[in-house]
Amino acid sequence: MSDNTIIRVKNMTKAYGDNVVLENINTEIKQGDIIAIIGPSGCGKSTFIRTLNLLEQPTKGELYIDGENILEKGHDINKMRQKVGMVFQHFNLFPNMTILKNITLAPMKTKGISKEDAEKLAMSLLTRVGLEDKANAYPDTLSGGQKQRIAIVRALAMQPEILLFDEPTSALDPEMVQEVLNLMRDLATDGMTMVVVTHEMDFAREVANRVMFFDEKGIKQEGTPEDIFEHPESDRLKNFLSKIV
Amino acid sequence: MGNLVKKYGYLLMLITSIFVLAGCGKSAKSAEINGASDLPGKRIGVQIGTTGEIYCSDEYEDDKKGTKIERYNKGADAISSLKNGKIDCVIIDEQPAKAFVDKNKELKILDEEFVEEDYAICVSKTQPQLTESLNTALDELKADGTLDAIKTYYLKGEGTRYEAQKGLSHKNGNLIVATNAQFAPYEYHDNGEIIGIDMDMAQALADKLDKKLKILDIEFDSIITAVQGGKADIGIAGMTVTKDRLKNIDFTNSYTTSRQVIIVNTGEGKHALSIQESFKQSFVDDNRYEYILKGLGNTILISLLAVCIGIFLGFIVAVIRATHDMTGNLKLLNFLCRIYLTIIRGTPTMVQLLIIYFVIFASVDISKIFVAILAFGLNSGAYVAEIIRGGIMSLDYGQFEGARSLGLTHTQTMCYVILPQTFKNTLPALANEFIVLIKETSISGYIGLLDLTRGGDIIRGTTYQAFFPLIAVACIYLLLVVGLSALVSKLERSLKKNER
Hints:
The structure holds two protein chains of two kinds. By secondary structure, chain A is an alpha/beta fold. Chain A has helices at residues 45-51, 77-83, 99-111, 115-128, 144-156, 174-189, 201-207, 225-230, 235-244, and strands at residues 5-16, 19-30, 34-38, 60-65, 68-69, 84-87, 162-166, 193-197, 210-215, 218-223.
């Protein structure tokens, strides 16, 4: 295992009862990787990305984060989650808190950062995404695109080593997709390690350095965007791409 | 708010007018009863647990002549029914009957001879030495004329009242006497105090035994239970020695004799009280309004603290249950919570209150207010728990995932993210639960606690006026609930204002 590997997945299987969703997955995610996960609906993409921070508990296998197998008993999952941020399809902002509180809650409670420092950090991140004037607004007053940018800021405020995106633009109106994708591009440029489940093929092609094609319980093909989009190996990938593009 | 007052004002007027109509009772002359031979086929009122009830049940119940026996918790309620024509006669002990008839000119005691019966003090079967020392003390009180003096004072109004001896060390502890102070002249409320033949005799006995007298005023049919369970040392309540009672409890020698008599309503000589007089009698005379005030204080105290316990307990139980539902952890705690919920929701609040007081704390001298707060808090907790759990489970699961994905622990997620939202969403249901709780505390009287309802009852029992005490009590409850509702909707609005 090289030093810059953040996540290593070994022989991982996820099943709900008899229904196997992921079978025997093996892969590695290195620092600076931008991985796009594509594939048809119900192929296990979301389940896979959710196992990476244990929102889904794998049934079998090993999952190393920074070299530690977090599936071993007694491992501090909460500590691990501080390093692995996640952005959801439906934002999951807390409607009972202001934007500022949404962002500062976790750093203050989990890392013991002072309110002052947490707010300073939050404000600088908000300024970066151009939403500093919304600090004291409540989530329900924002548009979908704004909400998702706040959700990304909230994850960033934990200063994670890696960010997981589970279909971050799927719930947005078309005109708001770009503002979120642009922010993600900026993050990529800054060197953020990202795993993105997406249906935005342009984004996968332009931003990702690796693309994973998921189908039928596992990774069917993995490679550079060029490998995937220009040289699809299986009929199923060809078929999928022809429908999407 | 002005609108609210107007709305409830109309409601109040409607209710009041209904009661006024009901209060303008018909002059209810009893069906013709001149003696015991006329009783079959009539409606007879008795007080639960008295000799009158036992006698009537044996003689007239199911006699196939249509005799109906109406059982009341209090003699005074039976008398009220008689006055309103709901029953034809009341069979009750002679002395209380005289007290009732004195205050209600239209009532009359028939000259029917019933057998004499003995009143005695009941003592737990496990305390034969107490029975013995009470007998000795009784003999002394009879011999030195003290007992006669007490009876003369209450029955004829002559002489002076027995005074507790001063300077006693009370080295033998307390003498807790269970009674039901709605039975003049043996025991009744007067000016905030419980007095009567039995009570003065109890004081004299306590003095003889060098003990400090404590009076426990509870329902008549709870007295034997209280003595058996150790809540009280002895019971003195004009209690007749019967075969059935002897199975459960010991009695001292008799301290007086009485007879059962029949009271009928002649419909004559009724002195209709003016509204002012009736009001004055209900609240002003003897400072009777103090019963309402004290009762209101206790009702508010019990409700407030019970609500606190209920919310605290409810949130804990709900979080345990929801955590178990979501993660499968906390199996044992969840199991305990389910037992708690099943028991509390499966049994009536009143039974729970009685069990806590008479069974669980049977032999502990514990404040009744504390028992009531505990009982109502435990009860409310179960309902709050399910309301909150419902609120938690109906929340978008993304809220948990969002919080947990940031590294917050399960507890932090609950405290900062889930419960604040749940509280806001379930506020209407919670408010409803608390309204129910306030009204539910009206059963506190069953353990002899002076709450608002009981305060009104005491006035009703001493004045035989049903109208003002009941209406006053109803209005106060209504005001409490309306006030609470207003507060809650204000809170709801201010919580809603956030988020927008």
